[in-house]
Amino acid sequence: MSPLLWLVAALGAVGVVAWAYGVREERVQGRLGPAALRGLALFLILAGLILPALRGRTIGAPGRVVLIDGSASMALPVRPGDPAAPTRLDSAMTVVAGLAPERVYRFGDEAVGVPLDDLSTVEAAEPRSRIAPALEAARLGGADSVWVVTDGDLGDRVEGLDLAAGLGLGVREVRVAEDVPRAGLA
To answer: How far, in Å, CA of 149 to CA of 31, rounded?
Structure first.
C-alpha cells in the first residue's frame, strides 16, 4: 500500500471531522473527545475501503491434504496371492498423483511430511499403521479435510475417527487393496 494513500485517507478523515465539528456543531466544552472518536471511525472506514481484498490469497488452509499409509502391509501386492500385481504403495502413489495434493504426509507410528516434488521417497516400512498422529499433523498444518490413502489395515481406526470429529476434520478414505474374502467355521 502506498503511504500517500494512507496519508490522504487520514487527512480526509481529519478534514471531514473538522468541518462537522467546526461548522455544524455547537461550540461547547468536551467536544474534542467525540470529534477524535468520529475521526478515528471515519479513518478506519476509509482504510477498509483502501485495503486490498483478501480473496485469492495463498495464505490459509491448504487445498488438498493427502495422508499416505506407510506401514509394511503397503508393500504387499494389491491382489493377495498375485505376485505380478503392483504393490499397494505403487497403487497409492497412482491415486495420490490423481488427487494433485498441496500437502502430503506419510504415516505409520508417526506422521512425516513428504515433499511434493519427491513422492518417490515414501517407503512402506513402518511396523504399525496409526492414523491419529497424521490427523493431528494435518490439522496443525491448517487442513480442514484430508484424503487417507491406505490398504484399510489401520490400527487405530476408531480412535482416529473420534479424533477427527473432535478436531473438526473431514476424512475421506481411499482403499488401494482388494478385499480378501474371509471364511470361517461356526
So the answer is: 66
pLDDT for 56 beyond 60: no
Q: Name the residue type at position 43.
A: F
Sign for the CA dihedral angle at 5, 11, 14, 16 comes to negative
pLDDT at 182 over 80: no
The mean per-residue pLDDT over the stretch 65-74 comes to 88
Whether the Cβ atoms of residue 86 and residue 177 lie closer than 8 Å to each other: no
Strands 103-107 and 111-114: antiparallel
